[in-house]
TrEMBL record:
This is Glutaminase. GO terms for molecular function: glutaminase activity. It catalyses: L-glutamine + H2O = L-glutamate + NH4(+). Its EC number is 3.5.1.2. It holds the Pfam family Glutaminase. The lineage of its organism: Bacteria, Bacillati, Actinomycetota, Actinomycetes, Micrococcales. SUPFAM superfamilies: beta-lactamase/transpeptidase-like (SSF56601). Keywords: Acetylation, Hydrolase. Homotetramer.
Length: 305
């Protein structure tokens, strides 16, 4: 398969070209609203370490909610199943920043990938690794092999100054006793991990431990094979908010989107894929990214279904 993979990526690029620039960039974080919407990139890293890319795969973008995969993996690596006392693993069928379910679920978020759940995971990680810097940054630097990966301070500041909604979610969690650290400290950590800037090439490499069933780039293990399988399962059921069903139907892979327009998708035992196009659909998922992954799984035998 990988012998003509470059050709397949070039075809996928051509197939999505007509819709490049479509969708709308996230405007509730002013810094993201300023991104040129006409860009599109795709990168693949195979479990053998081969890399393929097309389009704007070397351009930095804000990873946003894709960071939630790394924070969940780090919490599970450090503390096993503890996190599941504090967050469920059911699809929400709701927007990423919904707080409606939180009230009647008594402060237990539906899953770790909607903002409420990710804030609980960030809180848990903060307790495990106190300090200013989130271990997510160190982890993605190590896995991508790129020590220059960093937090875009302007994006973080931009989000922090428009964080009424996440702040409300955090306070509600705390009122139910499901946030142990200060709201401000958790929000700062969360916003920082979301504001990490990476390229498709770096992100595909950083996510490849999930294709390798938990084994890191240096050959050591972050997660057991069973834990990696479970992170992939939660990505499949909850990685796209109220479009998780649509993604399973069109693409058929575990994946995680971010409002920066990136999507990380995993083909267990084969490769990890990162696509990026800033324009979002109505559910907050990259329009071109979704289309590209649908084209890719239609041209390969990679869908898990
Ligand atoms: N879906 C996303 O990427 C959302 C992440 C963003 N930082 C937020 O909390 O709103």
């Amino acid at each position: 398969m990988t012998s003509d993979l470059q050709g397949v990526l070039d075809e996928v690029y051509e197939a999505v070209r007509p819709i490049m620039g479509g969708g709308s960039v996230a405007d509730y974080i002013p810094r993201l609203a300023a991104v040129n919407p006409d860009q599109f990139g795709i990168a693949v890293m195979t479990t053998d370490g081969e890399r393929f890319a097309a389009g704007d795969a070397a351009v930095d973008f804000s990873i946003q909610s894709i960071s939630k995969v790394f924070s969940l993996a780090l919490v599970m690596a450090e503390d096993g199943d503890e996190i599941w006392q504090r967050v469920n693993r059911e699809p929400s069928g709701a927007a990423f920043n919904s707080l409606a379910q939180l009230e009647y679920k008594r402060g237990i978020p539906r899953n770790p990938f909607m903002n409420a759940g990710a804030l609980v995971v960030a809180d848990h990680l903060l307790s495990l690794t106190p300090g200013e810097q989130s271990p997510v940054l160190e982890f993605v630097r190590a896995e991508s092999g790129n020590p220059d990966v960093s937090v875009d301070a302007l994006t973080a500041a931009s989000e922090l100054s428009h964080s009424d909604r996440n702040s409300s979610i955090a306070h509600l969690l705390r009122s139910f006793g499901n946030l142990t650290n200060d709201v401000e400290a958790v929000l700062a950590r969360y916003v920082d991990q979301c504001a990490i800037a990476m390229t498709c090439e770096d992100l595909a490499a950083a996510g490849a431990f999930l294709a390798r069933r938990g084994v890191r780039a240096d050959g050591t293990r972050l997660l057991s094979s069973n834990q990696a399988r479970r992170v992939n399962a939660v990505m499949l059921t909850s990685g796209f908010y109220d479009a998780a069903g649509e993604f399973a139907y069109r693409v058929g892979l575990p994946g995680k989107s971010g409002v920066g327009g990136g999507i990380l998708a995993i083909v267990p035992d084969v490769c990890s894929i990162c696509v990026w196009g800033p324009g979002l659909d109505g559910s907050g998922n990259s329009l071109t990214g979704m289309a590209a992954l649908a084209e890719l799984t239609a041209r390969t035998d990679w869908s898990i279904f």
